[in-house]
């Protein structure tokens, strides 16, 4: 299944279920931020975070799972004109991802590659992407966010 199909399905479910805004993207990100323009190097960009929190990601959409924090874990300011953009997580734990895109859309994933989540696709919008990394269980876990323009 392509990322475009996954994103379209996520958007359709979100539109049908309605969106809650339990997460506060106006808060500063806990683990930092980065500004990247298309063609950025090194690719992938990586950031270390601690995944998990106390808020059920399902409060955003029925497609979202895991426990996440209130404040974003990481923030990406992305310049326009790129052909594709993917945001994912690697960890030895079962992690999930929630991303609030520049247009206000929410994207969620769990277990795209084993227990590691990924969101993204073609023709990404320029602007602010707020990223939350959750855990499937109640424990926190070390995790690495990666941002890439390469096919996943």
- Reading the helices and strands in chain order gives HEEEEEEEEEEE
Query: In which order are the strands of the major sheet placed?
Result: 1-5-10-7-8
Radius of gyration: 14 Å
Q: Mind summarizing the main beta sheet?
A: 5 strands, mixed
Overall pLDDT, averaged? 88
> Helix share of residues?
under 10%
Topology, number of strands: 11
Estimated share of beta-strand residues: 35-45%
Supply the number of helical segments: 1
Category from helices, strands and their pairing: mainly beta
Q: pLDDT below 50 for ≥5 consecutive residues: which ranges?
A: 1-21
Question: What is the distance, rounded to the nearest whole angstrom, between the alpha carbons of the first and last residues?
Answer: 11 Å
Based on CA inertia axes, which overall geometry fits? globular
Describe the structure.
The protein has 152 residues and is mainly beta. Helices cover 10% and strands 39% of the residues. It has one helix and eleven strands, in the order αβββββββββββ. The chain has one helix at residues 3-17, and strands at 33-36, 45-51, 55-56, 67-68, 74-78, 84-90, 95-100, 106-110, 118-122, 127-135, 141-148. It is globular.
Topology overview:
Layout: H1 3-17, E1 33-36, E2 45-51, E3 55-56, E4 67-68, E5 74-78, E6 84-90, E7 95-100, E8 106-110, E9 118-122, E10 127-135, E11 141-148
Parallel strand pairs: 1-5
Antiparallel strand pairs: 2-11, 3-4, 5-10, 6-9, 6-11, 7-8, 7-10
